[in-house]
Design brief:
ten-stranded mixed β-sheet, six-stranded parallel β-sheet, 19% strand, Rossmann fold, 489 residues, 18 strands, 2 domains
Amino acid sequence: MIVNSRPLIVVANRGPVSYDRGAGGERVVRRGGGGLVTALRGLLERHDVTWIASAMSAEDRVVAAEASGALDETTRTGASYRALLVAHDPVAYDAYYNVVANPMLWFVHHSLWGLSEQLETGGALRDAWLDGYEVVNASFAAAALDELERQPAATVFFHDYHLYRAPRIVRNARPDATLAHFVHIPWPSPDGWTALPADLRLAVLDGLLANDLVGFHTPRWQRNFLRSAVDLAGAEQIDEQTVAYRGRRIRVVAHAISIDPAEFDDLAGSEAVLARERELEARRPELLVLRVDRTDPSKNVVRGLRAFGLLLELHPELHGRVSMLALLDPSRQEIPEYTSYLASIQREAREVNERFGREGWTPLTLDVADDFPRSVAAYKQFDALLVNAVYDGMNLVAKEAPLVNARGGVLVLSENAGAHEELGEWALTVNPFDVLGQAEALHRALTMPAEERRERIEAIQGHVRSHDVAAWIDALLADLDEIAKGDDE
């Protein structure tokens, strides 16, 4: 284990806690949601962390107004950390989050724009960038600079696409600060960034290149970033993981994020999950196809449902024997593209059931709800798991579900998911746009000999247990130590 005694200032849009009011009017502290928060929780357990995040709820904003600085909090295991909530102007935050970060940056990162007609980068987008994205990033940067006054030796650790401009602001104010940034989503090739005007894409790269360390989940995204830095920002590539830009050297690394196996072992045996599993077992078919996703266009849910329908069309012998369970967490319904996509998912599910359903057999069950215990229960029960993302930075479902599965389930995995670089040799690989290929892969998964199924899933389980989230954190901290050592020499 790498021991890093330097304090860390984590900066992310979401925090590890959120605040609310209970039925009796008392203040309630809840664990923050989202995969990023879950992944970074290990930092809180083992390091001296101040976490700067947006005040998301009404009670968050009350807490931020009451506090003169960061709040002292503890994790569920008793580890202490400091939480600092930034209350942004609501109009600026809406432009930052609902116009620029999602969908514009998210769609560019995941190659989702229909360039022939969908994307327009006119005055409204530029206004949202200047009056929203830049303003909110400046608020985050100001909070980080205040913390650096308190902890001059701390490393500032930015996360994800919400905060591309903040590192440049901090760098300009504190040239000697140690700054790192991890991008948790795919990084497209340089051509993908030409969907944006030159000044906006340069602003993105200039902000990221203000860091000492920039991290991605896979070498594929790392290579795309290096090419983008050279081709679009004029950086000079020094070696396979270093560029020079504006008189400084930036290290660009790839470390695959993972999960905490002990947490999922505990979850799998918890009463909440066991109760949901009993409900599933009471009505499960002989064969169960599972997908667990957010209702995000990048997750490719519609094509996945269509592939299941094609499986039923091509293999009538499976009628009555197989069902698909789609457990979907509603995502970003304030954004029109997401609302429209959820409607498309619901329409596709109805069509499959209307075409193939019969008395006593519902081919496809669609459940749109935030119900993680049910998801973990379904993880234990699947025979085939479909992860067919258009693009995905990693996709932790591909690691979580096989880890706790008890039926020798087979992972059907998109070649464009970051997890494929680690797990591809033990999964059935699919192209996310090839619906027939996905249907054929599902059939192979459901008819695969038991011994082959067992060998594949045991290999995935072994890999996930030996490459857990602690290993990811240690690798990043080791990189930061190397940077600090180089600065001292």
